[in-house]
Amino acid sequence: MRASFLGCPVDFLTMAETVELARGAMRSRQRLQHVALNVAKFVNMRSDSVLAADVANSDVVGIDGMGILWGARALGLPATSRVAGVDLLAELLAVCAHEGFKPYFLGATPVVLQQAVQVARGRYPSLAFAGWHDGYFKPEQENDVVRDIQSSAADCLFIGMPTPRKERFLAAHRDDLGVPFIMGVGGAFDVLAGIVRRAPVQMQRLGLEWLYRIYQEPGRMWWRYATTNTLFAGVLAQALIKQALRYWLGAPGVVVPPGPSRIGG
Hints:
alpha/beta; globular
């Protein structure tokens, strides 16, 4: 089910439903692009038209962050669960290993990427990669990367490049890659490689993964989360106030004062 959350399209899907959509795309080789929506991406969309268009034009917009999940629920939308990008990556790698689909990893540094590939192979021994390439290629190398993906016959492409570089890459090449399932995975390669640890499960449930990231990388993360979380809270609060006002002004027994008469000036 797709709905609008504060002007952003969101699909209310479970993990199982999302995995099945990805599996169906890989089987039919019909392109399906998945976007994982979190608070930072939502806030950045408001000032980045390329990012906003990428989200709007995606086939599936999943709820990645607890802030989005709680915000949707607060506004009365039927959001039941989130589908974290790092968890979806793990589920789909298992599907690939079991059903013979071949993934392509694009992003991260060469060292992190190689470690992520090795960990994935160790975790899923039957997994066969279509290929991989780090995310630190130069603009003049971009066409070579695209050709490598095209020739790999990959069934799924996982992109671990930062926003908005990932969005600009997809906007330019998504129709030419020839890959059925495409998904941005944020920093999931770092997690898979063991470079970044995920928050404990209880912190995940409480929506405090951002605090754990700040604990691990205070110099890089504190300002990002301080700004995006504050801006998101302001946008959500404004929407909740408007919703409450609409309810009370339209509720039975509530008298709405008339506006100024246009007759006689």
